[in-house]
Structure formats: structure tokens, C-alpha cells
Write a structure and sequence with these properties.
Layout: E1 7-12, E2 17-24, E3 27-35, H1 37-41, H2 48-70, E4 79-85, H3 89-106, E5 110-114, H4 115-121, H5 143-167, H6 173-190, H7 194-204, H8 206-224
Parallel strand pairs: 1-4, 4-5
Antiparallel strand pairs: 1-2, 2-3
Length: 253
């Protein structure tokens, strides 16, 4: 270890970006990112298998570029840190495997880093001359966790409403539609992509779910009626006395 703190190599492969960082103490020496976003764009979200293969191809060049940017060699490293989760399992395996191989080959200690904790820990690498006041509080918001909590809450509500309707011996049309939209929302949240996440949340939130239910009900009603628009009945024409032409002035006898 030289002055300024330990020299640590960081490897991040939890999703679609291959990240290699080198820090000495709290000073960042290199930060190289190789993105595979273009390969996922046509699918509307990150595909785990494609991401894992992209990490395999990008890890070597990214490591070489980071070492060159920091002006250090692998032999000078004091430790290796790698994201161990949460993230895509196949993508994580690439980074963890590479970190283990480097640690064994260089005889350096290896540290497994939680991805979410890393978001908070990265705040100590500041280049504006200010330091974080400790102790401090950090708030992490993960859309997947929020979606899971929302799905659980709305799913329970939909199930209770369905049971009440059945106990009251009512036709549970509204309750079944609500339950179907909740299930659809959960499935959309599990599907990779920003657009599917947005529609998934819309299906789970009670106000927007009510609007979607009315829209679907209207579409289903039109389909059942054969798609013909409902027309107002034509009022009958006013009757006139026998033998009298409409518009003729009739005088009483």
C-alpha cells in the first residue's frame, strides 16, 4: 500500500453495463463503463442472456482501459471488490468469476459488495472538496421492491372484494376485472422495460385501474353488440286527422 490509501479495483456487472473502477482511498483514478444498451433496445428492456454475453466480451477491454487511465498495473493493486448482488444472476456470475480469477492470480483479497450498498458508498468518492457528514441517513428506492409491495397490497384487496361478492351471492364482474388487472400489472412489472413498468403500475394503482376497467368494459360491450354503434330510437311522426293534409288549416264544423 502506498500513500493515499489502498488501491482497489472494482468490478460491476449487475445489469447491462460493464463497469471497472479504480480508487486509491477515496480518490477515483479510473471509471470505465461499457454499455450493451443498443443490443437490448429492440427488445424493449434488458435481456439477461444478452447482458451476460456482453459482459464476457467487454470485461477484458474495459479492465485494460481502466488500468491505462489510472496509470497502474495489476500487480500494484491492494484488493479487488466486485458486485455480488442484487442483479441479473448470469451477469453477476461473469463479474464474480473474473474477480475471483484475478484475486487468485494476484494473491489479493477480494470483497463482495452489495449493489445497493454500493450506491450509497459511492457518495464518499466526491471531487468537489466536500465530505459527507457522518453519521448520515441514505434512502434507496428500488422500483422492483415498490412494485412487489404494491402488487401484494392490491392483490389482497382484490381477493377480499371477490370473496365478499361471492358471499353476498352477487355476480363479481367488477371484482374479477380488478383481479385480472392486478395480475396483469404484476406480470408487466416482471417484464423488462420501462414501458412495461409504467403500464404495470397503472394497472396496480386503484384510480387508474378503475379507468382501465371502464375502458375495457366499454370495449367488451361493443364487441358483444357486434360492433354496431348504439342508435337512438326514431320518435314516431305526429298523427293527423284522416283526410287532412299536413299544414292545412282545419276549421271546426
Amino acid at each position: 500500500m502506498t500513500g493515499g490509501g489502498p488501491l482497489v479495483l472494482g468490478i460491476e456487472t449487475s445489469c447491462d453495463e460493464t463497469g471497472i473502477g479504480i480508487v486509491r482511498g477515496t480518490t477515483m483514478l479510473a471509471n470505465v463503463i461499457a454499455s450493451s444498451m443498443d443490443e437490448h433496445a429492440r427488445y424493449g428492456g434488458v435481456v439477461p442472456e444478452i447482458a451476460a454475453r456482453a459482459h464476457l466480451e467487454a470485461l477484458g477491454p474495459a479492465l485494460t482501459a481502466a488500468l491505462a487511465e489510472a496509470g497502474v498495473t495489476l500487480a500494484e493493486l491492494d484488493a479487488i471488490a466486485v458486485t455480488s448482488g442484487p442483479g441479473l444472476s448470469g451477469a453477476l456470475m461473469v463479474g464474480v468469476g473474473a474477480a475471483k480469477a484475478l484475486a487468485v492470480a494476484l494473491d489479493k483479497p477480494i470483497y463482495a459488495i452489495n449493489h445497493l450498498v454500493g450506491h450509497v458508498g459511492a457518495d464518499v468518492l466526491r471531487d468537489d472538496g466536500t465530505d459527507i457528514q457522518l453519521p448520515t441517513i441514505a434512502l434507496l428506492i428500488a422500483d422492483a421492491l415498490l412494485g412487489a409491495a404494491l402488487f401484494r397490497r392490491e392483490g389482497r384487496r382484490a381477493w377480499r372484494a371477490l370473496r365478499v361478492a361471492l358471499n353476498e351471492q352477487r355476480v363479481p364482474g367488477r371484482e374479477v376485472a380488478d383481479g385480472a388487472l392486478v395480475v396483469l400489472g404484476g406480470a408487466l412489472l416482471l417484464t423488462p422495460g420501462f414501458v412495461t413498468d409504467v403500464f404495470g403500475v397503472l394497472c396496480l394503482l386503484a384510480p387508474t385501474r378503475a379507468l382501465l376497467r371502464r375502458l375495457l368494459t366499454g370495449v367488451a360491450t361493443r364487441q358483444l353488440l357486434g360492433g354496431a354503434p348504439r342508435q337512438r330510437p326514431t320518435p314516431p311522426a305526429p298523427s293527423t286527422p284522416h283526410g287532412v293534409i299536413e299544414g292545412e288549416i282545419v276549421e271546426p264544423d
